């Protein structure tokens, strides 16, 4: 070795992949899970989806889930009541990591706090999910039901 600093070749110099983090709430009441029907979002309007949102800078995934639960459906969730269910590396929008958490205890009754983006809330049995769902969410729900903690979607 000559002692010269190692220089990466062109392939090694690829820019780092930037990932958007999403959190998804499986609010469970017995064997039922709460979904909202999307509207006016420009993406999959009319589809049923879990209460969800993007991770913000400086925020843990649990803090993001608690914030989204309050913002979207008006329920208060304590950190100790958040249970991990699944993580999915999703190819949409260049790459996302979606974290799915189950909550069975919370304060308040779920209400639609974003009627401009959500036309309805509905409780669906985990073995009878709505017909029109966003694809990655439907697949993640299958993995959760099977106890699989990790998946890759769309790559």
Q: Mean pLDDT across all residues, rounded?
A: 94
Which fold name corresponds to the CATH topology? Nucleoside Triphosphate Pyrophosphohydrolase
Alpha-beta classification? alpha+beta
Quickly name the level 1 CATH class.
Alpha Beta
Number of helices: 2
- Our measurement of the CA-to-CA distance between the termini, rounded to an integer number of angstroms, reads 40 Å
- At the fourth CATH level, what is the homologous superfamily? Nucleoside Triphosphate Pyrophosphohydrolase
Helicity level: 10-25%
Shape: elongated
Portion of residues in beta strands equals: 25-35%
Major sheet characteristics: 8 strands, mixed
The H-and-E topology, N to C, reads as: EEEEHEEEHE
Spans of at least 5 consecutive residues with low confidence: none
DSSP strand tally: 8
Radius of gyration from the CA trace? 18 Å
How many domain units?
A: 1
Task: Label the CATH architecture.
Answer: Alpha-Beta Complex
Family: Belongs to the Nudix hydrolase family.
Pfam families: NUDIX
Organism: Nocardia ninae NBRC 108245
GO molecular function, one term: hydrolase activity
